[in-house]
């Protein structure tokens, strides 16, 4: 009976091969395997991209955080500038007052120096006149004594 069953199985196989059924079944299985392979390769490529995507997302997140910090710094700087505006105005006024005082002091010093220079010049001229009169007197005395 086993032989009869084996013969029947072989006969059915030949019928399926001759009718093309077995060939279609093999092609169908091959196509399914190819689809699975393509899908597996696509998934493999996606999995390879995941670390890159993670890195890129982390970089984007870091850039966003840095931009937020920069914005916060700019806002803080603006607030500090606004806070110190009155102080800057007062400092500017103080500096202007000091400059005016220094200018006034310099003018006084220049005036004093001119007065001193004029006095020295006058003293020098006076000394020259005294020397000239002494010289003339000594010359006259010598001239009078020689006679």
Descriptive overview:
This protein has 147 residues and is an all-alpha fold. The chain has one domain. It contains two helices and no strands. It has helices spanning 2-19, 21-146. It is rod-shaped, with a radius of gyration of 58 Å. The termini are far apart. The relative contact order is 0.02. The model has no long low-confidence stretch (mean pLDDT 88).
Briefly, what is this?
Residues 23-79 form a coiled coil. The protein has one domain.
What key attributes describe this structure?
rod-shaped, mainly alpha
Number of beta strands: 0
Q: Describe the sheet with the most strands.
A: none
SSE class: mainly alpha
Q: Give the SSE order as H and E letters.
A: HH
What is the beta-strand fraction? under 5%
Keywords: Coiled coil
Topology:
Layout: H1 2-19, H2 21-146
